Amino acid sequence: MNTIRLLVTNIGLSILVIIAAVLVLSTDRLWPFRLPGQLVFLAWPLLAAGVLLITLALAAFVTVGHGSGAVGDEPDRLVTAGPFRYLRNPIYEGTAILLFAIALYRQSPSFLLVAVVFVPAIDAYVRRVEESHLKTRFGQEYVEYLRTVPRWIPRWPGRMGAS
Q1: Does a structural domain hold residue 163?
Q2: Which residue in 30, 104, 123, 147 is deepest, having the highest Cβ count within 10 Å?
Q3: Helix (H, G, I), strand (E, B), or coil: what is residue 135?
Q4: In angstroms, rounded to a whole number, what is the distance separating the alpha carbons of residues 121 and 100?
Q5: pTM for the full model?
């Protein structure tokens, strides 16, 4: 029954995200301008980076944490492998990158606004809700992770304080 609930929840959320994206893109006609066409070429590397980051993070969730990354399916253990080794929120960061890629590709001021609003909104959520939940759930292991792994700007392997 839990699998069915997870499936229905995540399909429902996916449908809502698609509807929201279509609605946001439809508001572009209300703006008196479009984003510069010269920036469209940046959309493809951003799209690839966002998809890669999310894919690697979800792979770590599955292989290390034995969760799926789906809403409501938390991993069994704290995942610190893969991109989580370099930054604490690679799925959210990948999502932000994808939002910017879509804005550039579509030359959409509306989608750019969504991306710009998403970044501080997800940061507030992570700081106020998610980090407290994970501290409660994983205790000292998560506190040490907070101390050694940055939230948004990755430290590359040579600069890591911990392995």
Answers
A1: no
A2: 104
A3: helix
A4: 15
A5: 0.87
